[in-house]
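=== How it folds ===
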Amino acid sequence: MPRLLLFDIDGTLIDSNGAGGAAILDAAEEHFGIQRDALPPLQLAGATDPAIAMDVFQHVNRQHSPEEVTAFLDRYLAHLQRRLQAADFSGYTLPGVVTLLEALRAESSAHLGLLTGNVRRGAVIKLSRHGIYEHFIDGGFGSDHHDRNQLGPVALQRMQDATGTRFDLADVIVIGDTPKDIRCAEAFGAKCLAVATGQYSSAELGALNPWRTVESFADLNATVELLLRA
């Protein structure tokens, strides 16, 4: 049976070593004319880019229209591109990710997509910088809706359209590292493979009752078996 595998990006596939959060603060300084330390710590894990932008607007007591949020995110994307292309950029692809993606692409039953809070352009920038964008067909992005729980049906429909395959929800797996990935999968009836490669431990993720929880993708054969045949 065909399997639809929808991957989160940050903390699941890559670690940009704070470049995304720093780019948000760069955008806030430029857009609002404030010092970056005027903002409290932002809750980034699992959040969509538009939701993060709205949070920034709220912290600086500014009303926001969709057009203003888009303008802010355009600034963010410019700074993200700059930071990821800098000579001292120290981000990396998480252990086991490249070999896992290559192994899955070699399986005819596997269809790889994205389910991420990044806006589409941000996803392309990040994954291209790390050399893994080519592995993914399409997906659902933060640019589709600020509420992550609305993105699953978008990703499912796009992947069905792109592949010409109708996926049973029992064969749709969201792979992510935060509680929001688990809730996102639940919201449209998919499974979630929670991976403890981000800021949450396997115990914290497992307490939310995802389909499966793993520490990492280090065991290639076990991960492929889990994703395609469990």
